[in-house]
Amino acid sequence: MEKKIIFATGNENKMKEIRMILADLGMPILSMKEAGIVADVEENGTTFEENALIKATEIAKLVTNCIVLADDSGLEIDYLNKEPGIYSARYAGVDTSYDIKNNLLLGRLQGVPDEKRTARFVCAVAAAFPDGSTEVVRGTIEGIIGHEIAGENGFGYDPIFYLPEYRCTTAELTPEKKNELSHRGNALRAMRAIMEKKV
Questions:
Q1: How many domains does the chain have?
Q2: Backbone angles phi, psi at 150, to 5 degrees
Q3: Residue 44: which domain range?
Q4: Which is nearest to 71 in space by CA: 87, 86, 56, 89?
Q5: Measured distance CA(69)–CA(127) in Å, rounded
Q6: What confidence score (pLDDT) does residue 119 get?
Q7: Rounded Cα gap, residues 141 and 145, in angstroms
Q8: Below-50 pLDDT ranges, the chain
Q9: What is the C-alpha separation between 28 and 115, in angstroms, rounded?
Q10: Phi, psi at residue 15, to the nearest 5°?
Q11: What is the CATH number of the domain that holds 83?
Q12: What percent of the chain has pLDDT over 90?
């Protein structure tokens, strides 16, 4: 088996985090673009796990002898019936900036007290191995939705995701601390443990 991983994403911010978290795995990690793969996979699952598996297995059909990883992640806000959930990236339109998405969510939660603003980031990571087997794991981080946009370090919904115990949003954490705590960090570490047994 060729010792490399293809991560089914075109998101550069995500790739940065993934490379930091999996740095000690000792395998090059390529994005689809870097691997020369052009594919538009329809994520029509009903859970984060289903969508991650769809992505990983579809891209795995296009490559040989390497591990394909894919993730599906999003924000669940309990007060909004776990919206935006699996539609986090597409919430209020695919091309809508996260500034607009974040302000929209803050608007929908206006006047809602902290104890009802509970939320979590969810990340499912799926792996498709060259032998045809698949694995999927889930990582989460619990927090609340803040009352304003704060922080420059993160991306997506990070500037409104507040961690009471750290008194800041995930966009105000250092990249190292964020990876240590984050849903993606938790899921990737769980997947790393599985991959270490396999390779």
A1: 1
A2: -150, 135
A3: 5-198
A4: 56
A5: 5
A6: 98
A7: 12
A8: 1
A9: 43
A10: -60, -40
A11: 3.90.950.10
A12: 78
Which pLDDT tens digit goes with each residue over 45-68? 999 999 999 999 999 999 988 999
74-107 tens-digit pLDDT: 999 999 999 999 999 999 998 999 999 999 999 9
- Which whole-number Å values give the CA distances from 134 to 4, 46, 55, 126, in the listed order? 16, 18, 12, 7
pTM tops 0.70: yes
Q: How far is CA 184 from the centre of its chain?
A: 5
Contact between 142 and 77 (Cβ < 8 Å): no
42, 125 contact by CB (below 8 A): no
Q: Tell me the three-class secondary structure of 124-189, residue by residue.
A: EEEEECCCCCEEEEEEEEEEEECCCCCCCCCCCCHHHEEECCCCEECCCCCHHHHHHHCHHHHHHH
Asked if residue 130 lies in contact with residue 100, where contact means CB atoms within 8 angstroms, the answer is no
Per-residue tokens: 157: 């919904």
Instruction: Give the active site residues.
Output: 72
